[in-house]
Amino acid sequence: MTTNGRPAAVDTAAEGHADVRLLYSDAILSITLIETSHSTLAQLTGEIDISNSTPVQAALTYAKGRALPLVIDVADVTFVDVAGARALIEFTRQGQVPPVDVRNISSRMRFLLDMLQ
C-alpha cells in the first residue's frame, strides 16, 4: 500500500484487512486513521497550528486507545507552528506503551521540534 507515492507505515497486504477512516478534519488539517490487527497509522495532512492543536492531541489520544503500536505520519504536514509542535511533543512524551513513532518529519519541522524539546 502506498500513500502519495510513499510506502505507508502499515503493510495491509501482509496483515489483511485495514479499516480506513477520517478521524478529524477542519479547514486546514485532516487526520486519517488506518487500523489493522497489529498497528494503527495516523496520517496528518495539512497544517497544525494553534487553531487545531488541541483537537490534534484529542484525535491522537483516541487513535492510541487501541493499545497497539501507533505510527504518526507527518509527511504531508505543510506547516506547523509552535502550538502544533508542542502538541506533538506533549503527546509523544506521555510515556506511551507501546511507544508512539512519528515518521517522515521534514527538516523544518525537525528543527522546530528540536528547538522546543
TrEMBL record:
It comes from Acrocarpospora phusangensis. CDD domains: STAS_anti-anti-sigma_factors (cd07043). This is STAS domain-containing protein. The lineage of its organism: Bacteria, Bacillati, Actinomycetota, Actinomycetes, Streptosporangiales. Residues 29-117 form the STAS domain.
